[in-house]
Amino acid sequence: MKPSEPARASMNEPPPAMDPEILVLGAGPAGLACAMELSRKGKRSVVVEKDAAVGGLAKTLTIREGDCTFLTDIGPHRFFSKNQYLYDFIEDLLHEQWRQVPRLTRQFIDGKFYDYPVKALQVFKNIGPWKSLRILADYAVARLRYGLLRQRTSTFEDYVVANFGRTLAEFSMINYTEKIWGIPARTIHPDWAKQRIHGLNLWSVLANVVRNALAGGRRGAAAPKSLVDRFYYPQFGTGRIYEEIHEHLVATGTRIETGSEPVAVRHDGGRITEVDVRLADGRVETMRPGHLVESVPLTSFLDLLDPPPPPDVREAARGLKWRAQVYLFLTLDKERVTPDNWIYFPNQDIPFGRTSEMKNFSADMCPPGKTSFFVEFFAFETDPIWAMTKEQVLELVLPYFEKWGFFARQDVRQCYLWKRSHVYPVYDLEYKDRLAVIQRWLDQLANLIYIGRPGRFRYTNQDHSLEMGIVGSRMILEGRKYDLDAIGGENEYFEKGPIYEKRI
Ligand SMILES: Cc1cc2nc3c(=O)[nH]c(=O)nc-3n(C[C@H](O)[C@H](O)[C@H](O)COP(=O)(O)OP(=O)(O)OC[C@H]3O[C@@H](n4cnc5c(N)ncnc54)[C@H](O)[C@@H]3O)c2cc1C
After folding, report:
1. Which residue, of 169, 205, 286, 436, has the greatest Cβ tally within 10 A?
2. Distance CA 331, CA 327 (A)
3. Would you call 243 helix, strand, or coil by DSSP?
4. Spacing, Cα 181 to ligand 1 middle (Å)
């Protein structure tokens, strides 16, 4: 959201002097968790957020249609972490509003539904004995090539073929991944697979199926993270977590400037010295923070630096790409569409990637007797979908939902269209080298901490962004450096116990 145009009189006023001990850019999960932990330790920060509301990608919107109120995340957010500290952090904010939800996720492939986690019998029934045998045979070949003969996995495609065999990888993983990123799987860095499906392979999936059958449907606690079949979700949407933090921060004296953004970040002698912030009323205020915590898109942040970074850093930043999203939200005069939290659509001939129904996360997201339906498209800002109107997008998707019996045109009350840029940092094959050049240079700025999904160009979920914010606050409070890139690395330290405290 753009700040409103400045009024002339206020522009002539001299900007107030402001030297906050800590300035936080971005009020998404990472920035807010940092400010929250600082405030709990008696430190006040100033938080600057471009949008009108806090929560970043994890905010919840309120849609009012007469007497009916619908709530929606911008793409529903399940919470899952193996870090107990984070559960306690949120429970302290939400209390009884923090609830467990059963997970139902399905994939719709070649005209058939598949449960996730996988049900062996259902897969066998849907794909038949020959394809099932081919999946097993391809897996054996893959284990031979990548296990016994130690062939390197240097792309996402290699990684999933090595762990699932070619037939299964192509059946559901490669096409969905290409839909998300808009580039071929052979040009996607294997980091993405390591981050998202670490610990999963055909063997572990089958072992899980057997374990479930033996346990009468109860899934084992030791199952890899992506197979977990319950998750936490706030009663009134994931954004409640961040609204609660906002309220706490305001009540305890933290200054939060929404509708505001940094317009220049000056540095000198290896330190950030001044940040010019354009406030919602148009005035530009110069702040001289002791520490700068930044969680806004890394590439935008680099553009603000004065003097600019050296040419190799600018060149590396130019090569980093972001994937955007288009969202269609429908309110429906219908009790329920499907029982699913999400349905994934990997096939390339279907234009959208995922649908979800907020009611299946919490009944309080819709008025009684009604529901809502959320449709996600992955896009670059140059794609035709980015330029479409809500009416055009509705006409594009409606035939699919009518054909599948989800709902009919007359069930649709209203439709809403939102577009967001900087949603997914693109893990192409060059991203890691480029990021390393940028990080080497940024890390020389002693009082700068850059955190979060956009701030570190890391594909994080809420839990990892929250943890980065919390660890970022500790770096300030303890005057120590922690390895922020190790967060979400799925190593042993992340599994249990207190927050990661490895010293660099
Ligand atoms: C469709 C979708 C579904 C998701 N589902 C899940 C899920 O099920 N579970 C889960 O845990 N996570 C999920 N996530 C991920 C989760 O949303 C992110 O990990 C989390 O929001 C990242 O938090 P962050 O603070 O790092 O970044 P962000 O949420 O991006 O916050 C950055 C903040 O900086 C602000 N900003 C940007 N530029 C400026 C500027 N120039 N000046 C000031 N402020 C600025 C932004 O407005 C934003 O508020 C999902 C994400 C998407 C897009």
Report:
1. 169
2. 13
3. helix
4. 17
Cα separation of 210 and 208, whole Å?
Answer: 5
Q: Is 460 in the pocket of ligand 1 (CB under 6 A)?
A: yes
How far does the centroid of ligand 1 lie from the alpha carbon of residue 387, in Å? 23
Domain ranges for the chain, please list them: 8-57+236-320+428-495, 58-80+322-425, 118-228
Place of tokens 């977990």: 228
Look up the CATH superfamily of 8-57+236-320+428-495: FAD/NAD(P)-binding domain (3.50.50.60)
Kindly write down the DSSP assignment for every residue of 457-485, as one continuous string. Answer: T----HHHHHHHHHHHHHHHHHT--B-GG
pLDDT of residue 490: 54
Cβ-based neighbour number of residue 326 at 10 Å: 24
Contact assessment for residue 170 and residue 347, using Cβ atoms and an 8 Å cutoff? no
Regarding the beta carbon of 473 and ligand 1, being less than 6 Å apart is answered: no
* Binding site membership of 78 for ligand 1 (Cβ less than 6 Å): yes
DSSP states along 331-381: EESSS-S-S-SEEE---TTSS--EEE-GGGT-GGGS-TT-EEEEEEEEE-T
The fourth-level CATH superfamily of domain 58-80+322-425 is Protoporphyrinogen oxidase, mitochondrial; domain 2 (3.90.660.20)
Tell me the CA–centroid distance for residue 449 and ligand 1, in Å.
17
pTM of the model: 0.90
92 backbone dihedrals φ, ψ, rounded to 5°: -65, -25
What pLDDT is recorded for position 228?
61
84-94 and 462-478 are packed helices; what angle lies between their axes, rounded to 10 degrees? Answer: 100
Tell me which residues of the chain have a pLDDT lower than 50. 1-12, 14-17, 217-225, 491-504
